[in-house]
Request: fold
Amino acid sequence: MENRVAIFIDGSNLYHALRSNFRRHDLNFSEFTGKLCGSRRLFRTYYYNVLQDPAQRPDGHRDQQEFLDILRKTPYLEVRLGGTKVAQGVLVEKGIDIMLATDLLYFAWNDFYDVAVLVSGDSDFAYALQAVKNMGKHAEVAYFESGISKDLLNVADNRHLLNRSFFTGLWVGRRRSRRKGTNKEE
Reply:
C-alpha cells in the first residue's frame, strides 16, 4: 500500500530559518515537498502564515503577495492565512498555530493521509503530533538544527534535518558567489 503524505508548513518558521541560515528564501516548493515525500505519494501541502497588513508594512505586503502568488501556482499546495493583532504595542500572529494543528488533526481523523510531515521547530505542535500518532498515523518533522524543540523531535517517528546539503538543488534562482562574481547554486 502506498503511503499518502500530507505536509504542514509553518511558513513564518520556515521563512525566518531560511533567512537566518542561508540568507535567502527563494525555495522551489514543488521540489522541496517532493524531496520530503521521496517515493511516497503527496496528498497535499498546506502552507500557514500571517497576512502582512498593507497599512502597517506596504513593502512587506507587496513582497508577500508576490510570494503567495507563486505558492498558489504550486500544484497540490494550499495557502492558509491568519491575521495579526496588536498586543502591548507589538504586532503578533493570531490563529496560525491553532489553524495548523486543527488541520493536522482533522485530516488524520478523516484518514486523508498516512504520514504527516510537519515543517517547524515549534514545541507547541508536539502534543498535536502525538495525537496524530495515537490515531495510527506516522509523524515526521522537518527542522533546522538552530530552532528545534526537543519535545518535537522526541515525538517524531522520522526526522528530516534541513541543512545546506538538504537544500542543494531546491532553490529557484542562482546566487552570486562571493568568489570572483561567479554564479552558483547552493
